[in-house]
Amino acid sequence: MTFTSRVKHHAGQLLIKAGVPEQQIPSRMKSVGSYMILLSCAAIIPLVLLDNVPMAVTIMLQLVYAALMCIGLTLAVDEKK
Known about the structure:
Blueprint: H1 3-17, H2 25-49, H3 55-76
């Protein structure tokens, strides 16, 4: 399984467990992906505004940013073959 198929599979399973109807899952995945991209930007703001942030916090926020951005883009963008 590729990264994209794994992310979409797990997101679909979570949406089904949350009670989202089957027909609405693709549109909800795009919506969730867009919100994850916006949320990833919020993870970087403390690093821009604050000086002297501990290294562990910096690394953690950068990892959160990267994960949210990758997963958000995977869900929000459709691949055309």
